[in-house]
Amino acid sequence: MFAWQPIFFLTVALAVCGCVNVRHGPTFDPRNPKDPAGFHDPATTNVLDPAWLKPSTNEFCLGPGDRLDVELIGSGQAPTPALVGPDGKIYFDLLPGLEVWGLTPTQTRDLLQRELARYNKGPRVSVTLREVRSRRVWVLGRLNTPGIYPLDQPMSVIDAITRAGGLYTAQFTGTTEELADLRHSFLLRQGKFLPVNFQKLVHEGDLTQNIFLEPDDFIYLPSALSTEVYVLGAVTEPRAVSFKDQVTLSSAISNVRGTLPNAWLREVVIIRGSLTEPHYAVVNFLDILKGRAPEVPLQPRDIVYVPDKPLAIWRGALQTMVETFVRTVAANEGLRAGGDTTRIGVGVNVGP
């Protein structure tokens, strides 16, 4: 066993809201996974807003792309299809375009009846929502039918996974265990990481994780067979690096064309384990470059974050690192779902 220079370990509480302070802890040997001073389990950080466990009580409001069936009751005519156009208007009978964007189907019916009353006495109109396209959720990854699904009714995380055909099953074993990496699965809402613990939800039946979705929520269940590590932050090309044989911290950073001039190399962060109950370590990469400390071997699905300032002056630093990772993966998988093979990275400059 080589004599290792001290590398600092830190344990933090990752909160979706609020600030996280960085504190250094005991040294550890990254080559020895059994080292008791290694990547320790942090305190439980999986905190969800109880309001997310309740479906919205708001009535559905129309938007561009939604399709309706409009019927003039008593006219003897079949229902007429109507599309909410990009301008938020629908066209029916001889009426000019009517602005319905943001109206409920009931309000749309009332609007049609008022406008038709100019030409007909006491018209009665029926409006039926036929197809929802203005509200959708993204459900991607190791599922049988991943895709973009309409949010046409209250939908929880489990509902969304079920709608996407459930977890992808191995052809020969008939199991899902080795295919979906639930520890690194995530839900992104309006650019924010919501700490849903997919492992507890799917395998332990913990319904406190089964929150209801909102329009444009993004769910991603990555492959458990992934051999990538992510290198983000103050590097030239922040992105995923393929894991071949043994990847070290130096080789991973070299694969993204090195660090930026303003990179703070004394406190490079390695994030390992579940996104909702993560493990952290801080490494003095400058000492490694100068030969004063040995290399740090990485594991598949590690996240390496190179900061651009000392961690001690960051507020919410580690929260930002995890959210940067989630946004990077979501952006790339969203592009892939849309047929674009472009790979992008996200570099975030976080103020004090």
Q: Please, could you describe this protein's structure?
A:
- The protein is built from six helices and 16 strands.
- A hairpin with a 5-residue loop joins strand 12 and strand 13 (239-242).
- The model is unreliable at 1-28 and 346-352 (pLDDT under 50).
- It has 352 residues and is α+β, with helices and mostly antiparallel strands.
- 17% of the residues lie in helices and 20% in strands.
- The strands form four sheets. The protein has a six-stranded mixed sheet with strand order 1-15-14-16-12-13, with helices on both faces. It has a five-stranded mixed sheet with strand order 8-7-11-9-10, sandwiched between helices.
Find the CATH superfamily of the largest domain: Outer membrane lipoprotein wza domain like
Low-confidence segments, ≥5 residues, pLDDT <50? Answer: 1-28, 346-352
CATH class of the largest domain: Alpha Beta
* Count of the separate structural domains: 3
Summarize the amount of helix as a percent range. Answer: 10-25%
**Number of H- or I-type helical stretches:** 6
What's the mean pLDDT score? 80
Q: Which structural class do you get from the secondary structure elements?
A: alpha+beta
By DSSP, the count of extended strands is 16
Strand proportion, as a percent range, falls in 15-25%
**CATH architectural designation of the largest domain:** Roll
SSE arrangement, N to C: EEEEEHEEEHEEHEEEHEEHEH
